[in-house]
Amino acid sequence: MKLTCLSEGRGYYFPPCHIVNICGFRVLLDCPLDLSALAVFSPLPIVISSLLDEKASIHSGQSSSNSESVRQEVSELLDSKKLIQAEPWYKTVKSLQLWSIYSIDVVLISSPMGMLGLPFLTRLKDFRAKIYATEAASRLGKLMMEDLISMHMELRQFYGPEESGCPQWMTWEKLELLPRALKDIVLGSDRTELGGWMSIYSAADMKGCMEKVQFLKYAEEACYNGSLTIKALSSGLEIGACNWNILSPKGNIIYLSGSVFASATATSFDYKALEDSDVLLYSDFAACNDVDGEKNDFPPATGSSYSSNIGSCWETIPESWLDSDEYSEEMEKVSFICSCVLDTISDGGSVLIPIGRPGVMLQLLENISLSLESSNLKVPIYFVSSVAEELLAFSNIIPEWLSSQLQERFCSGQPLFTHIQLSNEKKLFVSPAIHSSKFLTSWQEPCIVFCPHWSLRLGPVFHLLQRWCADPNSLLIIEERADIKLALLPFEPMSMKVLQCSFISGIKLKKAIPLLKILQPKHVLVPESLRPHISCWNPKFSVQSFSENETVVVPKLKAFADMDIAMDVASELLIDTKMIEGKNIARLKGELLIEQGKYRCVVRNKQVLSSQVRPLLFVGRVDLDSLLMALKKMGMKVAAQSSGGSEHVSLIFISEPSEALIEVTSTQTTISVGDETTASLISEAVRSTSVCF
Amino acid sequence: MTIDCLVLGAGQEVGKSCVVVTINGKRIMFDCGMHMGHSDHQRYPDFSLISESGDFDNALSCIIITHFHLDHIGALPYFTEVCGYNGPIYMTYPTKALAPLMLEDYRRVLVDRRGEKEQFSSENIADCMKKVTAVDLKQTMLVDRDLQIRAYYAGHVLGAAMFYAKVGDAAMVYTGDYNMTADRHLGAAQIDRLQLDLVITESTYATTIRDSKYVREREFLEAIHKCVDSGGKVLIPAFALGRAQELCMLLDDYWERMNLKVPIYFSAGLTIQANMYYKVLINWASQKVKNLSATRNAFDFKNVHSFERSMINAPGPCVLFATPGMLSGGFSLEVFKQWAPCEQNLIVLPGYCLAETVGHKLMRAKPPARIDVDKSTQIDVRCQIHQLSFSPHTDSKGIMDLIRFLSPKNVILVHGEKPKMASLKERIESDLRIPCYYPANNESQRIETTHYIKAEASKSFLQSSLSPNFKFLKTISRADTGFVLNERAESCVQVCDDRVAEGAVIMQKDQHPKIVHQNELMDILEAENHKVQVAYCCPVCVPDEPKNVALSPGEDMHPVLDKCSLLHLLYTKLSNGFQDVTILNDGDRLQIQSFTVSPCLKEKCPHRIHVNPDSTSEAVNFCCTWSMEDEKLAWRVISSMKNLELKTR
Ligand SMILES: [Zn+2]
Ligand SMILES: [Zn+2]
Ligand SMILES: [Zn+2]
């Protein structure tokens, strides 16, 4: 097995990407897009938000006067002048392009975000891999892609049809002019990533991609090519998100992606199903961030204090400890957000929530509407997205993919989510776009708006941000990100309040080690930065580290592969054994099958058992004296002659029942005979006097 | 290794389905149903046969419930809450959601109508359901380290599943009730091709072949339409779940198409709640219903309203779905008493009615008739009666198709009538050559199972056996089945190779047997391979051959002497005689398996044993060698060579 980490990714929105070679099959793990890189582009400089005041119908197209005002708007907004003013392109995992697409056999998708880059691959002529994803992840992934395409098309209306070939901003002259921060994003810190940029895929590309996906349930066994059995197991990160268990005849491999022990919306992390693996590929990078961020909390890994802290309770950690605090921490976060929302509304401000995680979004929608209800505040909630309606409808028919809390709620007779009721009561308004007349007539401020896109460069969020960025009473709720300054740059100066929150998107360092202890893998692959933290525990498993764009070869797990022998074959073996050198030896009869990643020797045709094995194997030497004896016993007339020398050739002449000659050397016996009866007698004699099977 | 199959219910009858299967030490109870036809101890399976002491937690590994019908789940709350079973219980998500409604419905019927002491309470139902683990289709659940189970779509009712169970190498499927043809709201049963020691299948329609449902659906709709057109009221007594939603979907759709305004009612809040469940569980409906759900959820009935008791005698036509089914008491019976005497009205009986229920009496009645509703009441029935007999069970063709597809080593029939089961057993044994049993209640059946010896195979053995000379066994495609059975496409690629024989097994005490390639074997044994060969220089008659040509190298070479053409002549002759084997001709020699033959021009060949000195005159010699295992073949070839005449002109 070989592992090449193509990208370590960055949290929820940009999951890691690897290529693993298992039993000769090349498996691509996830195919994400780095959408945070959209920050280098200037957002669409068109002002729709002012229309909300007029509640009037929208202009279509751009009159010349309109585009003039647009120019002005842009210049007012700057400092963001340095941002690239062009139709955005999308940043894929660059190293993936160095691989021959044809050589990829299997693609495994771990989360909706993990498939956003997939249409770039599937539209290639050489793409032939089998794609596996859970039903729910692929459905959400499809919605995200549809939304992305639709938001992009809105931009294209402004920029006009795409120029053919390389866009202006990608020429080196222009790139040289970019500020360093932007250059770092466009080209990567090693300045090699320009090739990863792609212009958006079409709706047809996306559709073609979805047609190639095989949808799985959690824990459904899919069999690739008879030799790999592949299972998706819930990771808790998102609705439909999963870890993978890949079973091959040479052992099983776990791909552990970002996992959440107790998720409020999605099915929780099914870690019990990951026990006893041969290789565990630990690709949850949340703990790595802990390593950077929580250095103060955790003394260096080599320190003994660290070991004794958790080490002492090593054996006694109850498994419930793993998911104990997480759920309540997340719920606290949510209720804090709700209280901020309430405060803002009470102050007459509006709240803008461009959060792109479906699970979190559904949970916030649920909790915010509840807290509005309980504090008797009547403000409308809007959900603006081209896929809003479908997403909400979908969320209401998937109890199998949701958390146990939601399932219990369903079994007790309540709907999974209350949003149907909210729309019926006219508390929630769902609209495909901000400029639909239905939306404009229902518009009312203050209000709460859920909308895409979290990059703050695409979709309705931009219009609303422009509208509210100068309002100190309004509130923007976004996820914590390192490039927050850049993200908000086009909206500076911001008077609007900004609440940055981080939702859990992986396993924390303090839980990573107990988890591995419980899972008991034989061999673990961890990110370089985690290695010291894991190794210092002297774990029972071997540890190997990986880093981006390096290929790691995993030492061979076992020299022998597991194989099942059917009872009827086995009992036949017992009849026909020869004892040689203290070992029982027999020849194998039957047929070899591979079934669901398992080698099997079976008999489907009973004749196979009665047929003679071929070729016959003779071991060691033929003993001349006993051969002569045996021949004589059969009533043959024999004469022997030995020639000395190095060759040690012995000859046996047979004159009766018919003429024959046997030549015996230390490595070979040749029987020259012209009569079938005599020949079979001699054969029998040779077989009976030598070790043969 | 064996599977022991103890039939506690539905053995040679329909009702109280319950089969306890012991596989390699694990014990699974499939279904825990009650019998609607009994009100004494026979109502429940005889659980004491599982454990006399009543320690069910240790006696059973788990319970699996296939669907929410009472004959499959009716005894579950009794078993868990009264008998005290606390172990794991598995069922699909819809069954978990819908079963409590069904159980509650039934409990009320018992208490209200029969006035019986309750067997279990509402709390019992709730507590029981808390112990249930819900599963999704195709999800492989590990009950414990050794026991895995998996659900497959069964049609029949929403959430109905067949269950696969595997312990070690032994595996089986219990079908529960299933339907092999899709209907308006549910799809057809779907299952993978699996290696099975046993299939336990229902056999309700063991000997019936059913025709299309669509004719009967149309008759049903027309009857209702006619009735409401003439101002009549339609009563459809049904249980809360399943049939009510299916018929309601038909009606709702028909109402839309015909633009009818006559109200459709559901009797109690209970069924409205059931509709909510159906809406959320739409992914378990048929593909057609699912596809439509993007625009409108088919269970979102537009024309359906809830019904108040005060509306029973309100004027005007209407359609009312009322619980319970079979007119066995409760609200539906109450409405029946009011509506039955009026000729305009229509009672639709959707499906099976138990003996002694009013529904059962009605099925035989020819109105106008008088019917005893209870000991003291008689009703004058003048209304029309429409019986709807379509049932979501597979017919005998479906059963045969499923068994043929799964090809298990054994079949057990349950959930059917004894004489019909007997005839189905005959068919399964004669047509499919699979042993088939149909034990009666409280009988058990033992079955031998597959068992594999765990071994380890070396890389070079596997390589030699797998490349490049393997054949892919084609799976037979069978277009004759009308339902969908998954070929599990990739998983059943089976690679078959006759070179397995190059493997040798090494068995040592306390170790897994090791399988190695024969070439590795000598190294492991630290021995040499001794080569044993048999040879014969065989004279073949060549009539036109001038004598002693071979001995006069000075002369012009006669064309016959050309090794190649001699060999070719032989090749042509042998090819005719040995069409069952492959003969290779590389120009120097012919090869058939280990047997090789080439013209021998040597003056004196050690293998030239003159058996018959007379026949050498016109002969050319061919040297033959072979290994012992091809003895028979070799002598067959040689004897035909001896009888040959190689004509050169
Ligand atoms: Zn049933
Ligand atoms: Zn049944
Ligand atoms: Zn010869």
TrEMBL record, chain A:
Give yes or no: UniProt keyword Nucleus: yes
Gene3D superfamilies reported for this sequence: 3.40.50.10890, Ribonuclease Z/Hydroxyacylglutathione hydrolase-like (3.60.15.10)
GO terms in the biological process aspect are:
snRNA 3'-end processing
**What does the UniProt entry say about where the protein is found?**
Cytoplasm; Nucleus
Q: Where is the Beta-Casp domain?
A: 361-484
Principal subcellular localization: cytoplasm
SUPFAM superfamilies to which the protein is assigned, alphabetical: Metallo-hydrolase/oxidoreductase
Q: Which UniProt keywords apply?
A: Cytoplasm, Nucleus
What's one GO-annotated cellular component?
Answer: integrator complex
Regarding protein family, the annotation reads: Belongs to the metallo-beta-lactamase superfamily. RNA-metabolizing metallo-beta-lactamase-like family. INTS9 subfamily.
What name has this protein been given in UniProt?
Beta-Casp domain-containing protein
Automatic annotation (TrEMBL), chain B:
Main localization is nucleus
Q: Which domain of life is it from?
A: Eukaryota
Entry-linked InterPro entries? Beta_Casp, INTS11-like_MBL-fold, MBL, Metallo-B-lactamas, RibonucZ/Hydroxyglut_hydro, RMMBL
Matching Pfam families: Beta-Casp (PF10996), Lactamase_B_6 (PF16661), RMMBL (PF07521)
Asked if the keyword Nucleus belongs to this entry, the reply reads yes
UniProt keyword Nucleus, yes or no: yes
What are the BP-aspect GO terms? Answer: polar nucleus fusion; snRNA processing
Q: Which Gene3D superfamilies match?
A: 3.40.50.10890, Ribonuclease Z/Hydroxyacylglutathione hydrolase-like
Cited SUPFAM superfamilies: Metallo-hydrolase/oxidoreductase
| Any one of the GO CC terms | nucleus
Q: Which residues form the Beta-Casp domain?
A: 244-362
| Metallo-beta-lactamase domain segment(s) | 15-224
Q: Which UniProt keywords apply?
A: Hydrolase, Nucleus
Q: Where in the cell is it found?
A: Nucleus
GO MF terms, alphabetically ordered: hydrolase activity; RNA endonuclease activity
In which family does this protein belong, per the annotation?
A: Belongs to the metallo-beta-lactamase superfamily. RNA-metabolizing metallo-beta-lactamase-like family. INTS11 subfamily.
> This protein is called what?
Cleavage and polyadenylation specificity factor subunit 3-II
